[in-house]
């Protein structure tokens, strides 16, 4: 399900040409060439090779969101606690998620649909929320409460089919994915999402995040630990019907006993 960045760039180049042609049909005046950085040319006289896609704001934003969402490389302004998407990131989310309403019109020009770009932005937004950030918009009838992910967002982070993620929430399983209902919607709290993602092979942990969860180890100074390790400790504590602190204390006592 993962895809290389150069494939995203090619898709965006082809999409931008088709989109510009669609706009030109309504506005005329050879505006496609101006939109694409090749002024004076009719959209249907342009070839994909004529486009300077890497100079576009859409590509620059999609590229950064790919690095963050797909590759897990921290980017400034993304994943910061209680911080809403802003600027170009918010524009990209609005533009790409809002394209569906224009799809029938755009298909008249046989343009390439930007499915990889949409997936890239949605994955970046999901990771942003996973680290405590806020969406700019939810694009549905009811705004999801902050601090929760959808099944679709979790599937993007885990690089899994959404149906498989939904199946993981089956309460009959030994350790099901924990969900909560909000009206007609079923969502996953961030802490539960982190615990579940820690055990998924397709999940890429975020590198260089501005704030990692911390555990105060008994009789030790505060220890900074990646959240995937925190998740495993929490799962073991829950399985033993113990608090995380008591579970760690028992581990420490056992270690000291073995050392003696």
Describe it for me?
This protein is mainly α. It folds into three domains: 5-130, no CATH class; 148-194; 214-259, no CATH class. The chain has helices at 5-27, 31-35, 57-69, 87-97, 103-106, 115-130, 151-158, 162-168, 190-197, 227-239, 244-259, and strands at residues 148-149, 180-182, 185-189, 214-216, 222-224. The strands form two sheets. The protein has a three-stranded antiparallel beta sheet with strand order 1-3-2. Helix 1 (5-27) runs antiparallel to helix 3 (57-69), helix 3 crosses helix 6 and helix 4 packs across helix 6. Mean pLDDT is 82; it is low at 212-227.
The biggest beta sheet, please?
3 strands, antiparallel
The end-to-end distance, rounded to whole angstroms, is: 50 Å
What structural class should be given to the helix and strand makeup? mainly alpha
Lateral strand order in the biggest sheet: 1-3-2
Rg, Å, rounded: 23 Å
In one word, what is the shape?
Answer: elongated
What is the number of domains? 3
Q: pLDDT average, as an integer?
A: 82
- The tally of strands reads 5
Fraction of residues in helices? Answer: 40-55%
Write the layout of secondary structure elements.
Elements: H1 5-27, H2 31-35, H3 57-69, H4 87-97, H5 103-106, H6 115-130, E1 148-149, H7 151-158, H8 162-168, E2 180-182, E3 185-189, H9 190-197, E4 214-216, E5 222-224, H10 227-239, H11 244-259
Antiparallel strand pairs: 1-3, 2-3, 4-5
List keywords for this structure.
260 residues; 3 domains; two-stranded antiparallel ribbon
């Amino acid at each position: 399900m993962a895809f290389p960045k150069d494939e995203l760039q090619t898709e965006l180049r082809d999409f931008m040409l088709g989109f510009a042609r669609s706009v030109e049909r309504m506005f005329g005046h050879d505006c496609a060439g101006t939109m694409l950085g090749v002024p004076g040319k009719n959209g249907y006289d342009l070839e994909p090779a004529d486009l300077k896609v890497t100079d576009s704001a859409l590509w620059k934003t999609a590229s950064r969101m790919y690095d963050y969402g797909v590759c897990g490389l921290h980017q400034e302004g993304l994943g910061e606690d209680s911080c809403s998407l802003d600027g170009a990131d918010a524009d990209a989310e609005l533009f790409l998620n809002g394209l569906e309403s224009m799809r029938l019109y755009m298909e008249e020009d046989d343009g390439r649909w930007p499915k990889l770009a949409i997936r890239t932005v949605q994955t970046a937004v999901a990771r942003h929320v996973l680290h405590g950030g806020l969406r700019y918009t939810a694009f549905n009838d009811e705004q999801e409460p902050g601090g929760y992910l959808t099944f679709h967002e979790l599937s993007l982070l885990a690089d899994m089919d959404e149906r498989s993620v939904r199946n993981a929430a089956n309460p009959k399983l030994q350790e099901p994915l924990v969900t909560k209902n909000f009206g007609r919607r079923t969502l996953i709290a961030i802490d539960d999402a982190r615990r579940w993602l820690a055990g998924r092979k397709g999940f890429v942990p975020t590198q260089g995040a501005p704030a990692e969860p911390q555990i105060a180890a008994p009789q030790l100074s505060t220890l900074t630990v990646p959240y995937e390790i925190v998740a495993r400790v929490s799962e073991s504590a829950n399985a033993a019907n113990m608090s995380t602190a008591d579970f760690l204390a028992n581990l420490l006592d056992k270690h000291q006993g073995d050392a003696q």
